[in-house]
Amino acid sequence: MSPIGPSSREQRTVDVIDHASAESLRAIGVPAQARPLEEVVDQMLEEIYPWRARMDHPRFLAFIPGPSSPLSALGDYLTAVHNVHAGSWLQSSGASVIEAALIQWLAAQVGLPPSAGGLFVSGGSMANLTALAMARDFKLEPAQRLQGVAYVSEQTHSSVAKGLKILGLLPHQIRRMPTDAAFRIMTALAAAVEQDISDGLRPFAVVASAGTTNTGSIDPLRRIRALCDAHDMWMHVDGAYGASAALSPSHRGLLDGIGEADSLSWDAHKWLFQTYGCGMVFVRQRKHLSQVFHTRPEYLLDAHADTDADQINFWDLGVELTRPARAMKLWLTLQVLGSDAMGEAIAHGCRLATWAQDELEKDPRWDIVSPAQLGIVTFRMTDAAMSPEALDALNSEISSRVLQEGFATVLTTRLRNRTVLRICAIHPDATESDMRKTIRMLTSYADAVLASGVHISKSFS
Question: What is the pTM of this model?
Answer without folding.
Answer: 0.94
